[in-house]
Specification:
It is a single chain. The chain is of the alpha+beta class. It folds into two domains: 34-242, Helix Hairpins; 305-456, endopeptidase fold (from Nostoc punctiforme), CATH 3.90.1720.10. The chain is 61% helix and 8% strand. The chain contains seven helices and eight strands; from the N terminus they run H-H-H-H-H-E-E-H-H-E-E-E-E-E-E. The chain has helices spanning 2-14, 34-128, 131-136, 141-281, 316-326, 365-374, 384-387, and strands at 345-346, 361-362, 391-394, 404-408, 416-424, 427-430, 439-442, 448-454. The strands form two sheets. Strands 3-8-4-5-6-7 form a six-stranded antiparallel beta sheet. A two-stranded antiparallel ribbon has the order 1-2.
């Protein structure tokens, strides 16, 4: 048994960090894996590359749109020029038509003058005959000169009238030709400018559509890039929180280990002092063991509780010694049904497909309380429901080291399922459940029933 106790002490020392670490109320942050962070970095890089590529395409499309707009503006200016040219051509055509009309009138007048001349010549010719006859028939020198002048004027008049007619006919033909040419040129220029304007406007519209699509795609990718950045920064933050939490846990674990060592040293010193005092007075604090009392079950009350030995009663020193002695078993495995007044024992397997605690040596919750109080001469039954009624109940505000604290389903004293030993400072030492070990924990109040002070 001494070797077993020594082994348990070694296990308790090694298991200090398994027990309560101040700060465990803070949930453990998630630690993103290196692969997850690398994937997020690659995703951010891909999005950034896509945004860069689309930025170039947007710039190119923007240039295409500006060039198309310039082309449209050029076509519009050509159209405007055609409109101006149309006005000029229309004016010139109007002038040409007016000139043609004037020429036609001149031709008509020349024809009329020529007709009158022809008629006058015919009439004069019947009076004076031919030019020779007209001269020969003159009856005096004066009459002869007059007839010669008349014949000269008539000749010049005839040539002038014929020349006017010819010139008027040519001017009319030229004016009409110029008007037709100018109108044709104006029509062709107008059609060309309008065609160019429509084509350029269509190209500008197409460029705007392409630019809008690229800008929309770029904006979407920019949002995705921002999301990728946020995700990666979130992973970095998670990693930083985890590392900070881990450092805090390590610091807290080191502090708790130091505190546990101090508590054990203090408990050992008190135990040694008590032993020396006991040896000096010749008294002994050993007694018979109650051991494990059959089947473990839930429920029960004061009427069902077996008698227990109160020993030498309760005192603050006894309560403190109970708490100090219980800490000797820190790290000891939980074993259902395990523990008696002599120390840890083999556990029992749970019913059906329950826990395989029959292969473990250790304590369950009531076995640890039984052993601790037996060391000061107070012998309790191996059942938490009976232990609840094994002494005077005390208020939570008046708890002292060594007091037993109990929990029941729904806080019902008739459904007590767990007991722990109060050690002071809002902490208890307990054997929690299968697959766990004896450890120190802070008090909790979900399902809390109350406390009992054995020996009172």
């Amino acid at each position: 048994m001494g070797a077993l106790i020594r082994t348990a002490v070694v296990v308790a020392t090694a298991a200090l960090t398994v027990g309560l670490v101040p700060g465990t109320a803070v949930s453990r942050p998630r630690n993103p894996g290196d692969g997850e962070i690398t994937a997020a970095q690659q995703e951010r890089s891909r999005k950034a590359a896509e945004v860069g590529r689309l930025t170039g395409l947007v710039a190119r499309a923007d240039g295409d749109m500006r060039r198309a707009q310039d082309k449209a503006e050029l076509a519009i200016e050509r159209y405007n020029k055609a409109v101006v040219d149309l006005g000029i051509a229309t004016s010139r055509a109007r002038q040409a038509r007016a000139a043609a009309t004037s020429a036609a009138k001149a031709v008509a007048k020349a024809r009329s003058d020529f007709g009158r001349f022809a008629r006058g010549s015919y009439m004069q010719g019947s009076a004076v005959g031919s030019a020779t006859t007209a001269l020969l028939d003159a009856d005096s020198p004066t009459n002869l000169l007059q007839r010669a002048d008349l014949l000269d004027y008539a000749g010049r008049r005839k040539l002038d009238v014929i020349g006017q007619l010819d010139r008027a006919t040519v001017r009319r033909a030229n004016s009409e030709s110029t008007a037709r040419r100018l109108l044709a040129e104006q029509k062709a220029a107008t059609e060309t400018a309008e065609r160019l304007r429509v084509e350029a406007a269509r190209e500008a519209a197409d460029a705007r559509t392409r630019l809008a699509a690229l800008q929309s795609q770029k904006a979407s990718l920019a949002r995705q890039l921002e999301a990728a950045r946020i995700k990666l920064n979130g992973l970095y933050a998670e990693r930083a929180r985890y590392q900070a939490w881990k450092r805090a846990q390590e610091i807290a674990a080191a502090r708790e280990a130091a505190r546990q060592r101090r508590l054990r040293a203090e408990a050992a010193a008190r135990a040694a002092a008590a032993a020396r005092s006991s040896a000096a007075s010749g008294s002994s604090s050993s007694g018979g063991g109650g051991g494990y009392h059959g089947t473990i079950h839930s429920g029960g009350g004061a009427d069902d509780a077996p008698a227990y030995s109160g020993g030498g009663g309760w005192s603050p020193a006894k309560g403190q010694r109970v708490a100090d002695l219980a800490m000797r078993w820190l790290g000891t495995p939980y074993a259902w049904g395990g523990g008696n007044a002599s120390g840890p024992t083999w556990g029992v397997d749970g019913p059906g497909a329950g826990w395989n605690d029959g292969s473990k040596v250790g304590f369950d919750c009531s076995g640890l309380a039984l052993w601790a109080w037996a060391q000061v001469g107070v012998y309790l039954p191996h059942y938490s429901g009976y232990q609840y009624n094994s002494g005077r109940h005390v208020a939570t505000s008046n708890l002292m080291p060594g007091d037993l604290v109990f929990w029941g389903y729904g806080g019902d004293p008739g459904a007590i399922h767990h007991v722990a030993i109060y050690i002071g400072g809002g902490r208890v030492i307990q054997a929690p459940h299968s697959n766990d070990v004896v450890k120190i924990s802070f008090m909790w109040y979900d399902g809390y029933v109350g406390a009992t002070r054995p020996g009172t």
